[in-house]
Amino acid sequence: LFEYMALGLPIVASDIPVQTRIVQDAGCGLVFPPNDAEAFARAIERLCEDEALAEACSEAGRRTTARLYNWDVD
């Protein structure tokens, strides 16, 4: 997850507690209910169709990993 965020890739993640907290706190992507393939597809479609959202998620992921999730953070 953190590597994708650092690369600036918008995240589409299963709605499990740890991932959901990270993705929502960072604002770096969308979550979907586990085992819901249609919701997964809709999340991907939404990011593909909404360039502003995808770019905002991308930047948020880069910014969050630089600030919180890197080897230099104490």
What is the end-to-end distance? 20 Å
Query: Helices and strands, in N-to-C order?
Result: HEHEHH
Shape descriptor: globular
**Unreliable residue runs:** none
Structural class: mainly alpha
How helical, in percent, are the residues?
55-70%
Radius of gyration: 12 Å
Query: How many runs of DSSP E, i.e. beta strands?
Result: 2
Give the overall average pLDDT: 95
The main β sheet shows up as: 2 strands, parallel
Could you give the order of strands across the largest sheet? Answer: 1-2
What share of residues are in beta strands?
5-15%
Q: Number of helical segments?
A: 4
Question: Explain this structure to me?
Answer:
- This protein starts with a helix and ends in a 7-residue tail after the last helix.
- The chain has helices at residues 2-6, 17-26, 37-49, 51-67; strands at residues 11-14, 29-32.
- The protein has a two-stranded parallel sheet.
- The mean pLDDT is 95.
- With 74 residues, it is mostly helical.
- The longest helix has 17 residues, at 51-67.
Short recap of the structure:
With 74 residues, this protein is mainly α.
Features:
74 residues
Topology:
Layout (H helix, E strand, L loop, with lengths): L1 H5 L4 E4 L2 H10 L2 E4 L4 H13 L1 H17 L7
